[in-house]
Amino acid sequence: MISHRPIVQAAKRRPDAAAALDNWYRITKRASWRNLVDTRGDFPHADFVEGLTVFNIKGNDYRLITRINYTTQKVFVRGFFTHSEYKRGGWKE
Predict the structure, then answer these.
(1) pLDDT score recorded for residue 2
(2) CA dihedral 26, 60, 11, 68 (to 10 degrees)
(3) What are the CA-CA distances from residue 73 to residues 21, 35, 42 (Å)?
(4) What's the rounded mean pLDDT across residues 68-92?
(5) What is the pLDDT of residues 13-72, one digit of tens each?
């Protein structure tokens, strides 16, 4: 289960990423991942960073930060950042 609202809001802020975000949402909505290995089956560049799963969106332009509860099959969007914003690390706070 995942809310569509944060994806729509991110796409409004960054229209050039809208198609990639929509693709991520559609894949994630139908997924039944049990762990990071399963997640990487759909998104090979997904990384586990400080308890969160980070997805590359639109190539390497953006980072989508999520918390995935594999037991309940819920995905929580924590933030959406450009690559440079992500590298600065403010999302960790």
Answers:
(1) 87
(2) 50
(3) 19, 10, 15
(4) 85
(5) 999 999 999 999 999 999 999 999 999 999 999 999 989 999 999 988 999 999 999 999
Count of domains for the chain: 1
User: What CATH number does residue 74 fall under?
Assistant: 3.30.2310
Print the domain residue range for 72: 5-92
Residue with token string 């914003």 = 85
Confidence label for 79 from pLDDT (cuts 50, 70 and 90): very high
**76 three-state secondary structure:** strand
Tokens of 77: 């969007």
Q: What is the CA radius of gyration of the chain?
A: 12
CB half-sphere exposure, 40, CA atoms < 13 A: 8
